[in-house]
Amino acid sequence: MVLVTDRPIGMGEAMRNPRSTEYDISAVIMEFYQEDGKDKGEGTLLVGAKLAFDKEANKLEVESLGSQPVRLTNIKREK
Question: Residue 2: enclosing H or E segment and its boundaries?
Fold first, then answer.
């Protein structure tokens, strides 16, 4: 499951116009599996990211703002 949304950019950040304004989306990527009859999983949170599509490789490229994305562990699906 993938959720992508726009990243809020505050007035101060917009006025300074730093490089971070290029990373205008946030994304949550979650992968679920069955364990003991329950949906459990892991994922990744990208607070600021930039997407591009490489037509030659037919691949989506994701560039994250900062050094490492946030790892999500022990995710549980609630119904």
Answer: strand 2-6
**Residue range 37-60, pLDDT digits in tens:** 888 999 999 988 888 899 999 998
Contact yes or no for 20/65 (Cβ under 8 A): yes
pTM, rounded to two decimals? 0.69
Q: Which residues contact 65 (CB under 8 A, 6 or more apart)?
A: 20, 23, 46, 47, 48, 49, 50
pLDDT, one tens digit per residue, over 65-74 is: 876 889 999 9
DSSP, residue by residue, 8-62:
P--HHHHHH--GGGG--EEEEEEEEEEETTEEEEEEEEEEEEEEEEETTTTEEEE
Give the residue carrying structure tokens 């679920």.
32
